[in-house]
Description:
By secondary structure, the protein is of the alpha+beta class. The chain has 14 helices and ten strands.
Amino acid sequence: MVFHLNxxxxxxxxxxxxxxxxxxxxxxxxxxxxxxxxxxxxxxxNNADDPLTGFLWFTSLNTKVKPLDNVHCRRAVEYAADKAxxxxxxxxxxxxGDIASTVLPPTLTGHHRFDLYHALTRPHGDLATARQELxxxxxxxxxxxxxxxxxxxxxxxxxxxxxxxxxxxxxxNLTLRGYSTRTFDDLVGTPAYVHQHDLGLAINGWxxxxxxxxxxxxxxxxxxxxxxxxxxxxxxLNDPVVNNLFTKALATSNAAxxxxxxxxxxxxxxxxxxxxxxxxxxxxxxxxxxxxxxxVHQYYAGYDYANLGIK
Length: 311
């Protein structure tokens, strides 16, 4: 195997399309220019795949930053969001993903389809219900908070602008604060910094380290996972119901019974309105026609590199 490192994404796509490389190891899909070229060509489409990646792209709502410490204010955000605009920001239904209404993605055991905030039936938002929630949280005229995102991600930058425009329709005004990926993880992962800078919302993405409800959910929804630095539970959710369900799952040796707990955690997290699901990630992948024994791994939704071959 020969790996080429530090290659610009557009050059990776060109190498694939012109037979200078066989596969993009990163697995996040081709860029916009190559995507348009592939979708316009039946020949190229024959060597393209569009799997769910196992990623959830989402926005965290922090439970310690006022007025988002009130669940009704968080629910107002859920209802006011324009899910279709966020889907477009991440690349549309083919390269971005399917509009998400749950925390667990469809690739994982335990995923149950439900839609508490009308993400699927009203993808441009439910402003009337959002305003009712604002009244319930004592902010009938809306409020202002800050949204953190990664400036070196074009998708997150576009999603931040889309969320700012969508939420403003209900009177929820977002101040956008961008960070590089390196500083984002350091600063947004430090609760004291988050509180000091009023970072009520933060755009993020997550995929499981292993294909299991615990591997996906625990570190960013469980209270005991909150850390003073390197924190992944950016919402700072510390819900006794969620915590007790994790405790029960860890004490359950029967796989079926344990897997039945994950959708209960998912629904409780969504009831708490601390996660605004964006899209269940997809990636338009292109594979060189000389590549053989190609298939997408069931759990990790990328090519199984251990079994690839060349004609």
